[in-house]
Write a structure and sequence with these properties.
Alpha-Beta Plaits, FAD-linked_Oxase-like_C, single chain, 481 residues, oxidoreductase, Uridine Diphospho-n-acetylenolpyruvylglucosamine Reductase, domain 2, 4 domains, disordered N terminus, acetylation, transit peptide, Uridine Diphospho-n-acetylenolpyruvylglucosamine Reductase, domain 3, globular
């Protein structure tokens, strides 16, 4: 990989570890500056390091340069310039990914899209809004205050909406409101050669369409390997009349997850149902200053009319009681609910605090709801046998859960055990007709598992799509496929 720094009187000095990159010249960098201005192009080592990794354990692979476009026209011109020179291109949003999706493993140019941060078009009567890639989910919901609407897809991190589309993000509300796949109506995408594509037609925002191939669905979850998502039109939802949250402990993992399955089978329209095992609850108590029982626990939330929520709570309470669950700890006022869910959202940092100085690797699998009790019980046994610290937290309402595995990056034996455990967990999910990733994506670490999951024919079809849209393999190369 080539490393760059600015030097007085000599432009760029190149430090090479391997074959030289023919495209990496002063002239090339000058062509990028001509599009966005000198202040919006950086080859400084510290900037490149910041853009060479996400929150995963994958090693940092810095790009050779970072650019900050302000408009879709600039993204198009920058992409065309890179394409003509054969320079790899890596989209960058907030950097909150967990599968190494922003690592520049072949070097290249990182496109930091955070300064494209406008809410472009709000249609309250149609429940839609169009946003640029720098708009985060919290910023959008702040913008929507007073409109009676909100955007419910909540992966925990304050990720950008277009980044969430690129990774097909999910989160705590998916059981009721769906994932990004169900909430994206149209995308504006800059293709690798600079052409601008509107996946559903320019400015179109119908709730559904049967016109042609589902190009929007193709780019949702593409992880930056097919193009730059520069605008997303998403569904909005009405803020419910009443919201009630609750916490309930259980004597065992199986009892908690059995309750989840039975709540869903009963058709109760629960908004959130999150599982935290006893290790995760202990970590959350210490990190967030709480005093919940350290046992397998469900965090639940109910949305609807006042009467409807009351009925949901009563029906859920009966199911919980039949599985020896504790009495609900309630939170109805906004402040109390925010405090309760803050503990859940801080689970990643609470887990890190369990083992100061260690890094964390968050696994991510999803299975059919009926197999959830079995896979969680087997996973707990595997954790104990592997002698690993791995709190479990999950969006169990849609069969998705994570082990946050603590790992000493200097301990090769422990790193090996973490890797082997993660692969066993993924293959256990595949054996139960599930998927190796429910929301984090494939990125760098799960490419072989993707092949095992979908098979050679499906994988070769994906490869042909990639080759058709990105024949030079310049868009985020080395990811997914």
């Amino acid at each position: 990989m080539a490393f760059l720094r600015r030097t007085v009187g000599s432009g760029i000095r190149r430090y090479s570890q391997g074959a030289a990159k023919e495209w990496l010249t002063d002239d090339f960098l000058d062509s990028l500056r001509a599009v966005v201005g000198s202040a919006k192009v950086s080859a400084a080592a510290v900037v490149r390091e910041q853009h060479g990794h996400d929150e995963s354990m994958h090693r940092c692979c810095p790009p050779d340069a970072v650019v900050w476009p302000q408009t879709v026209e600039q993204v198009s011109l920058l992409a065309s310039t890179c394409y003509s020179r054969g320079a790899p291109m890596i989209p960058f949003g907030t950097g909150t990914g967990l599968e190494g999706g922003v690592s520049a493993i072949q070097g290249g140019v990182c496109f930091n899209l955070t300064q494209m941060d406008r809410v472009l078009e709000l249609n309250t009567e149609d429940f839609t809004v169009a946003v640029e890639p720098g708009v985060t989910r919290k910023a959008l919901n702040h913008f929507l205050r007073g409109s009676g609407l909100w955007f419910p897809v909540d992966p925990g991190a304050d990720a950008s909406l277009c980044g969430m589309a690129a990774t097909s993000a999910s989160g705590t509300n998916a059981v009721r409101y769906g994932t990004m796949r169900q909430n994206v109506l149209n995308l504006q995408v800059v293709l690798p050669d600079g052409k601008v594509l509107h996946t559903g037609g320019q400015n179109r925002r119908p709730r559904k369409s049967a016109a042609g191939y589902n190009l929007t669905g193709l780019f949702v979850g593409s992880e930056g390997t097919l193009g730059f998502i520069t605008q997303a039109t998403v569904r909005l939802h009405g803020i419910p009349e009443a919201t009630v949250a609750a916490v309930c402990g259980f004597p065992s993992v199986k009892a908690a997850v059995d309750s989840t399955v039975q709540i869903l089978q009963a058709g109760i329209p629960i908004a959130r149902i999150e599982f935290l095992d006893e290790v995760m609850m202990g970590a959350c108590n210490r990190y967030s200053g709480l005093s919940y029982a350290e046992q397998p626990t469900l965090f639940l939330e109910f949305h609807g009319s006042t009467g409807g929520v009351r009925e949901q709570v009563e029906a859920t309470g009966e199911i919980v009681k039949s599985n020896d669950g504790s009495d609900f700890a309630w939170a109805q006022e906004q402040e109390a609910r925010d405090q309760l869910w803050a503990a859940r959202h801080n689970a990643w940092y609470a887990a890190l605090a369990l083992c100061p100085g260690r890094k964390a690797y968050s696994t991510d699998v999803c299975v059919p709801i009926s197999r959830l009790p079995e896979v969680l019980v087997e996973t707990k046994k595997d954790l104990l046998a592997s002698k690993l610290t791995g709190p479990i937290v999950g969006h169990v309402g849609d069969g998705n859960f994570h082990c946050i595995l603590m790992c000493d990056s200097e301990d090769d034996d422990e790193k090996g055990r973490v890797k082997e455990f993660a692969e066993r967990l993924a293959r256990r999910a595949l054996a139960m007709d599930g998927t190796c990733t429910g929301e984090h994506g494939v990125g760098l670490g799960k490419r072989q598992l993707l092949r095992e999951e979908v098979g050679d024919v499906a994988l070769s079809t994906m490869q042909r799509i990639k080759a058709a849209l990105d024949p030079k393999n310049l868009m985020n190369p080395g990811k997914v496929l």
